Amino acid sequence: MKRREFLKKAAVTTAAAGAVLSGTLLTSCSSNKKEESKQEAPNVITKKTYQWKMVTTWPPHFPVMGEAADMLAKWVETMSEGRLKIQVYGGGELVPPLQSFDAISQGQAEIGHGASYYWAGKSPATQFFAAVPFGMNAQQMNAWIYAGDGLKLWEEVYANFNVKPMPAGNTGVQMGGWFNKEIKTISDFKGLKMRIPGLGGKVLAKAGGTAVLSAGGEIYTNLERGVIDATEWVGPYHDYLMGFYKVAKYYYYPGWHEPGTVLEMFVNKKAFESLPKDLQEIIVTAAYRSNLWMLSTFEAKNNFYLNKLIKEHGVKLKQFPEPVLKQLKKYSQEVLEEIVEKDPLSKKVYENFLAFKKNVVAWANISEIAYAKTLNL
Prior knowledge:
Blueprint: H1 2-40, E1 50-56, H2 65-79, E2 84-89, H3 100-105, E3 111-114, H4 138-147, H5 150-159, E4 163-170, E5 177-179, E6 193-195, H6 198-206, E7 210-212, H7 219-224, E8 230-231, H8 236-242, E9 250-253, E10 262-268, H9 269-273, H10 277-313, E11 316-319, H11 322-342, H12 344-365, H13 368-374
Parallel strand pairs: 1-2, 1-3, 6-7, 6-8, 9-11
Antiparallel strand pairs: 3-10, 4-10, 5-8, 5-9
Helix pairs in contact: 2-10, 4-5, 5-12, 6-11, 8-10, 11-12
């Protein structure tokens, strides 16, 4: 009797133990399957994407400048892995070229590409961030903007218009321009109608000429039809592509009016600040890359195309006489003084610009300039 009760209890205990073991195994298997399922599931993180529009002051896909805008958009898309796509519109495709700044300021597009002296009508202080006659060259302008107070001041000027600026290219030292008559004395500027923007245009007016502001795509036709008598543009590479040698006889140097012209990318400030931090950094980085690419392109090709202009097309290369340059420099100083007297913001920017220039030129005298003199020894 006792033996039967013992066996009965043992059987119940064994069955219970088996059930527990079985449950544990089942639970373990189920847990393992869930864990495997978790590990096998793709780690999908959905990030917001952005579609932006860029308007430019250049004709669509314009050599160098328009190409830089196209590449900048492509670099941003690649670096952001498609999260930020920018559709580029040449001047006139979405808005007229010289209305690009307004389009960005008002939010019609998020990003623009041009040069800050085109917006002198908005604020005269904008001109100092593109080119100042007898001012700093490309290397020195980059130093002021990136390592001095230039960018901070530039942002201050543009903040009034809900726009954030950044350098996105540089032409280097430009040529003095294309003329259909020789410039022998300062009086030869009297009555001359010349396409020349920014502060250089005001200096021309001091010399008795008339400054005409027109977009790049209109210059050749204006020169051909006699709407203007002369034009400045950039340098030999770009001027060759523009075909100015077909409609003007004389090619003057140096580019006293634009010794290192900064081109810009300007962004709607609210749109920029609404982006995640990584996309903001991508835009800034792309602008840095564009700045270097453009300057390098012009520097690499200018002399080759200057030789083509002279040897293949008979262009007459002329240097402005020293007395002419001295007088233009005097007029430049008068123009700058008049601007800063009337506009406190321009005064603030120019005083900073001037202090930086004095310092950097002192160094250039014993570095770049001294070295340049050894090249022809």
